[in-house]
Amino acid sequence: MDKKELAGFLRRRRELLRPADVGIPEGARRRTPGLRRHEVAQLAGMSPDYYIRIEQARGPQPSPQMLTALARALRLGTDERDHLFHLAGHHAPPVFAADDHVSPGLLRLLDALTELPAQVVSDLGEILVQNRMAVALLGEQTAHTGLARSFTYRWFTEPATRSLYPREDHAHQSEVQVADLRAAVALRPRDPEAAKLVGTLRAASAEFEDLWERHDVAVRRSDRKRIVHPAVGVVHIDCDVLATVRQDQKLLVFTPRPGSDAVGQLELLRVIGRQNLTAQDPLPDSLPDRLT
User: Fold this and answer.
1) For the sheet containing 118-122, what is the strand order?
2) pLDDT one digit per residue (tens) for the chain, 292 residues
3) How far is the CA of 72 from the CAs of 11, 89, 110, 215, in angstroms?
4) For a Cys staple, 62 with which of 66, 158, 235, 254, CB 3.0–4.6 Å?
5) Are residue 128 and residue 200 in the same domain, yes or no?
6) 109 and 54 in one domain?
7) For residue 249, what are the β-bridge partners?
8) How far apart are CA 182 and CA 212, in angstroms?
9) Is 176 helix (H, G, I), strand (E, B) or coil?
10) What per-residue string of b and e applies to 53-86 under the rule 16 or more CB within 10 Å gives b?
């Protein structure tokens, strides 16, 4: 780990980013260009003190997960992401394998969707990043670790996950999850991560095993969902899926049909979300519209 070079690289990348690049309002009190340290920490989901110590070359070695979060927060391209890993003393993720790095362009697109719930999901169902409307509608989905990072894994192993949908929709959601996963696994031949996910699910869930044995396959491109929300009730909403060229990541955008009850329900969620954030953060005008 080259602490000095790592600190310099992070500082320079932070200074080159404009607040608007990551969906943060400029604010009248901003005196210097670039992002503030606490803003980078918030975008990366880490404590400000932890990030400051790294940028001051006096922190511990960041984990690969932390580096991935920093790469997203600082909008690093693949080469810059790999450089960040090398400076921190880690091997960069192999270029031929799917990984958690979300491209700057995809993050900019996510940031632009301030009025609609949206999130980036891996081909194995791992929710990599959500905007605030997605968190307001679906709850925080990015803090899980291990196999539980996959929504598909949690769907078949954690009953509480199913409370997101009405009970009568559970069978359909199970079929969709398995058919989409089978399509993804076919694009990851001999991939240990995919094999472990499927093997564990087959052993843990009889429902998954039965559906897997049907060999149904379908790439999910759109869906009509009913989301159960504790504050606004059942939200009827369309989900459109935009896949990357490699098909290892997807942008999910949730849109209400014009004139439907969901239009008002999402507007209420925007208000509720602002109230919650204002109560928790002393500087709400500096907060981004995206959570990682």
Assistant:
1) 222-229, 233-243, 249-255, 118-122, 127-131, 290-291
2) 888 889 988 988 888 888 877 777 776 676 767 888 888 998 888 899 999 999 988 888 999 888 988 998 888 887 788 889 988 989 877 654 556 778 787 888 888 888 999 999 998 999 999 998 999 999 999 889 899 999 999 999 999 999 999 999 999 999 999 999 998 888 887 788 899 999 999 999 999 999 999 888 877 778 899 999 999 999 999 999 887 766 688 899 999 999 999 999 999 998 886 454 333 333 333 334 454 4
3) 15, 19, 12, 35
4) 66
5) yes
6) no
7) 122
8) 8
9) helix
10) ebbeeebeebeeebbbbbbbbbbbeeeebbbbbe
End-to-end CA distance of the chain: 25
User: Do 162 and 205 sit in the same domain of this protein?
Assistant: yes
171 and 223 share one domain: yes
CA distances from 142 to 88, 122, 128, 148, 200 (A): 23, 12, 6, 10, 21
Range 212-222 burial, b when 16+ CB lie within 10 A, else e: beeeeeeebee
> Closest Cα to residue 140, out of 153, 124, 127?
127
Asked if residue 108 and residue 59 are part of one domain, the reply reads no
CA nearest neighbour of 173 among 143, 198, 151, 142:
151
Residue 161 domain-assigned (yes or no): yes
Q: Both 183 and 67 in a single domain?
A: no
The predicted model scores a pTM of 0.64
Which residue in 166, 185, 168, 188 sits closest to 177, CA to CA? 185
Euclidean distance between CA atoms 228 and 104, whole angstroms: 32
Which pair of structure tokens corresponds to residue 93? Answer: 């993720």
For tokens 């001051």, the residue is 56
CATH code where residue 27 lies: 1.10.260.40
